[in-house]
Structures are given as structure tokens and as C-alpha cells.
What does this fold into?
Amino acid sequence: MTLSQNDDASAKKVPYHFGEKLRTVREHKGYTLKVVAQKAGVSESLVSQIERNHVSPAIDTLLALADVLDINLEYLFEEYRKERPVRIIRHNERPSLTEDDIRYEELSRPHRGDSNSVEAYVLRLPVGSHTHHGSYGHTGNEIGLITKGVAKFIYENKEYILEEGDSVSFSAGAPHRVENAGSCELEAIWINTPAQRFINE
It folds into this structure.
């Protein structure tokens, strides 16, 4: 393997490339590598390697260099800001699924592997029906908001009546279920974390 190939292999291991910006600012200020290295308390060789993106600096080294060169950290990291996806589900295009006679209409779109995934859906229960998924408990937390009808919420061995506008939040680790205790379809907005039903690749 040639020297240039070695250099290429090293560069590929560097996740962030601050070198060009550091070198540009240093040269604009008229500082030599030696001056910057001395002020930052590091070796001249290390500064040179950082500028050529051959090594990724430790955070304390990067902060020291930024301080010496009077560089705003926002300037250094601006291109590394991740794009935050905005996911929209139109009201007439909601993915849905049914379990027995219960309908779940997706409101959020979680992704597999996201440890912070949040799942939200419209829950529709016919008269006399009840949920089954939480009968033995599961991981995570849940929040529910009754938007139509009357619900009986059973958590472990306690029962709670929830009417339109009422909400409930709880740890999903204990056995729980929702029953339609009214005379019309029960409608609620339900939120789970982590996602349980709607998970996209």
C-alpha cells in the first residue's frame, strides 16, 4: 500500500472535517502552525494533521483551537446539523389496522430502530368492545385522550370512567385495557412510546 493510499484510509476514518475551516481562518489571521499550536497547548504536527483532516480532534483540542482562532462553534458545525424530517399524514390517507372489531388509525410515523419512537393513533371501539394488547402489560408509557363517548379504563385492579375531554397517562408495564362503556362508538387519541403497532422501515 502506498503512502497516499494510507492517507486516504486515515481520512475516511475521520467523521468530521473541520480542517479546511481551521486552516482558512488561521491563514486569514496570519498565524503560523507553530503559533496556533503553542497557544492551544498541542503539537504543531497535530494541528497540521487536523487541518489536513488526517485525524479527528478530541473535543477539548477542538475547543482550544476554536478559542485561539476566535471561531464560533456554530460556524464549525453548521454543515453537520441533521435534517429533521417532517412527516405529514393527510386525514383521508391514514394507514389503519384492525384487531377484532377495533380500528387503529395512524397519526404519527415512527421508524424501526428509533429508541425514542412515539406512536400516535385514533382508537375506535364499537359499543361493548375492549382492547386486548395491554392485558398483560408491555414496555413503555401511554397517554390517551377521549374525544368521543365514554370509556372504562382498567389498570391492574382499579377502574376509572373517562368521558369526552378526559385524558389518562400511565406506565404500560402493568395490565391495562380500555372498554367502551357508552352507547356510541368510543373514539380516543392514543400515544405510545416506544411504538407498538405502526413501525416503518
Remarks:
- The chain has six helices and nine strands.
